[in-house]
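re: the backbone from monday

yeah here it is again, tokenized this time
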């Protein structure tokens, strides 16, 4: 579990350090304060520089370059966006350093020239004489290093992911889950759900959904939900999961129960899937009414403690942080290190509130966001 994090020249941060990181961490702040950037930094750090996470982070923000010289319109992630001030040169570098019990782990990414005597030089002739992204991840026990080609336009080619064989089973051993603000896709939800079917964790999922709909009895996946329904934003269907409720004789699609149920389902499935790892949640309160916030936080905090998961979440919601602050000193949760970090990228560190401090701020009506 990370207890300190330092970010150097990544996105909008020149230098930033977060001390006193807890089991459950809520990042608050104004728009464009850097909350999501911190989630992204942690995501790259905890993935050990795994290429799909670089590409996914860029794709999530629409930071892509279309290669007009490629007849197939090959897309590239706009790598410049990850570096401070969006500058990309042979001197460009960012670092993310985390510590756990004074044990340091370092992720560094920097731009170098592609050597002419490497396999990459011949496999990617369009990049001849161009640059590469070097990624290094290291701690006391392990040292990893990877090189990814960078196009003359500063793009990270999406197709390169299909050819990359550097990691072997590294991704399978990684307990890292990310829930975006727009929630998970039906395909992601079904895959996570099928991992816990007929296990004790299935009851935990039902318990989570009962926060909003107490009459839910059980969930089940069905093959028809794998069908793809393309829309303006890609997959728009919330099929694939059926719900049995005390209210109805027939099973109904989970999409009929609204945004809140879908959001909670994605959160709890991701939390279970991140056992002994890290869960990142952007805009955790998306689709959730303020009346369910307290129960949601209680379930997430207790489950994170039980599953040995460290949570980092962001919010703009006043109700969201207040419900967490109210619970933080509850007898059931007081032993769990819960933190609120107020992010301001113009400062070198956040203002951090411990369990007791956030509760005091709530009682004194001090604005934390």
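seq for it, each position gets an aa:
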């Amino acid at each position: 579990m990370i207890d300190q994090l330092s970010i150097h020249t990544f996105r909008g941060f020149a230098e930033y350090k977060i001390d006193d990181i807890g089991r459950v961490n809520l990042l608050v702040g104004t728009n464009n304060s850097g909350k999501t950037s911190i989630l992204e930094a942690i995501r790259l750090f905890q993935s050990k520089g795994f290429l799909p996470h670089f590409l996914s982070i860029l794709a999530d923000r629409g930071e892509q370059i279309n290669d007009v010289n490629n007849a197939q319109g090959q897309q590239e992630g706009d790598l410049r966006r990850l570096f401070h001030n969006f500058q990309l040169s042979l001197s460009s570098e960012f670092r993310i350093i985390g510590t756990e019990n004074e044990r340091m782990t370092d992720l560094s990414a920097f731009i170098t020239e592609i050597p002419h005597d490497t396999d990459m030089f011949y496999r990617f002739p369009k990049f001849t004489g161009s640059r590469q992204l070097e990624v290094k991840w290291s701690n006391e026990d392990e040292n990893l290093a990877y090189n990814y080609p960078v196009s003359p336009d500063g793009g990270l080619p999406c197709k390169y992911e299909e050819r990359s064989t550097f990691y072997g089973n590294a991704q399978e051993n990684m307990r890292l889950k990310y829930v975006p603000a727009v929630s998970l896709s039906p395909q992601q939800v079904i895959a996570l759900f099928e991992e816990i079917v007929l296990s004790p964790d299935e009851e935990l999922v039902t318990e989570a959904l009962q926060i909003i709909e107490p009459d839910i009895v059980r969930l089940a996946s069905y093959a028809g939900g794998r069908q793809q329904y393309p829309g303006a934003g890609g997959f728009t269907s919330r099929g694939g999961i059926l719900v049995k409720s005390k209210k109805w004789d027939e099973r109904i699609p989970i999409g009929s129960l609204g945004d809140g149920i879908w959001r909670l389902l994605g959160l709890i499935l991701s939390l279970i899937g991140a056992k002994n790892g890290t869960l990142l949640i952007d805009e955790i309160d998306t689709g959730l009414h303020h009346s369910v916030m307290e129960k949601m936080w209680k379930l997430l905090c207790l489950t994170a403690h039980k599953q040995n998961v460290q949570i980092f979440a962001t919010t703009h919601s006043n109700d969201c942080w207040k419900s967490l602050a109210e619970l933080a000193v509850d007898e059931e949760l007081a032993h769990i290190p819960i933190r609120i970090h107020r992010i301001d990228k113009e400062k070198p560190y956040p203002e951090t509130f411990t369990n007791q401090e956030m509760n005091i701020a709530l009682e004194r009506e001090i604005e934390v966001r």
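The two ends are 25 Å apart (CA to CA). The longest strand covers residues 103-113.
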